[in-house]
Amino acid sequence: MTTLAIEELNVQYQLRNKTIHAVDGVSFSLENNESLGIVGESACGKSTLGLAIIRSVPGRNIVKGDILLDGKSTLKISEDEFTKTIRWKKISMMFQGAMNSLDPVFSIKQQFEEILRTHDNIGNHLKMINDAMDSVGLSSTILDKFPHELSGGMKQRVIIAMALILQPCLIIADEPTTALDVLVQAQILSVFKKLKKEGLSIILISHDLGIISEIADKVGIMYAGKIVEFGTLHEIYSNPKHPYTQALLKSIPKIKGESDLISLKGTPPDLSNPFTGCRFYDRCPHAMEKCKKDPLKTKTETGYVSCWIYESNK
Ligand SMILES: Nc1ncnc2c1ncn2[C@@H]1O[C@H](COP(=O)(O)OP(=O)(O)OP(=O)(O)O)[C@@H](O)[C@H]1O
Ligand code: SF4
Ligand SMILES: [Mg+2]
Asked: Which of the listed residues 121, 141, 167 is the one where a domain comes to its end?
């Protein structure tokens, strides 16, 4: 059964003098127990997409489209019902940079207890905290410590454990390995691999395709607010179709230090401008006259691609 279906999702931030189209017509679905990687350059809308799924987009905003969990709309229910039944209980999120926002004046245990209090949870708090700590490979002896006494990797595991405390079926992890050294990154990824094996679905947000490839079954390539290509990890890696996906893949450094690093010239378009046509137009080596019109989604073996090259093949 489909666990999560995103249908034509649009998220706009309303600023005083402009509107930012951070997520623009995004659709995909994720089956039970599947994990998804969302990858794209800075400011393409990855975090906003994650925040919209958990109904936590900040500021003045407009969210349109729909998000279905097991076939039921999560956008059409009240905020109260969403909080009581879905947020942290079915879907939770590790926010970008969260390990740096642990409260310095409270112990780790107090911070867990605060989360459980906010959720009005009447279960055995200590058992729930210990189980969550155990699931990320942390000893409960660190519960009395304060954030400054923990390493970056430990703090990040605490953040994962906090997101898991109410046993959600899906966790959105926004850049969980950024700012960690390579060894610690590998440890955090192995925590996610273990959780995935135990049946947790993960939406992993990253600007790094290499990290995504460790966890994801499916991949969404995001560019300037749109998912321009979606498919299984295997299809995206072995037969990338969108010129942006091809450029991203070429930018992964080869293991032996060979330099196959291409730098993609130019910058993504300003998301506050009304836009028609392919958003990759200015940077695309294959741009054609017809790319000035919006490309539609063309079905691929396992997903879709939005590019005129493939529409002409229909
Ligand atoms: N609270 C906000 N208010 C107004 N604009 C915002 C807000 N948050 C994000 N934006 C804008 O929305 C767009 C998408 O931002 P978002 O943070 O979702 O991108 P991202 O892909 O997560 O970037 P990064 O890789 O740097 O984390 C950007 O233009 C950003 O400036
Ligand atoms: S639609 Fe055109 S400009 Fe856009 S990625 Fe495809 S070929 Fe390039
Ligand atoms: Mg982000």
From this structure: 167
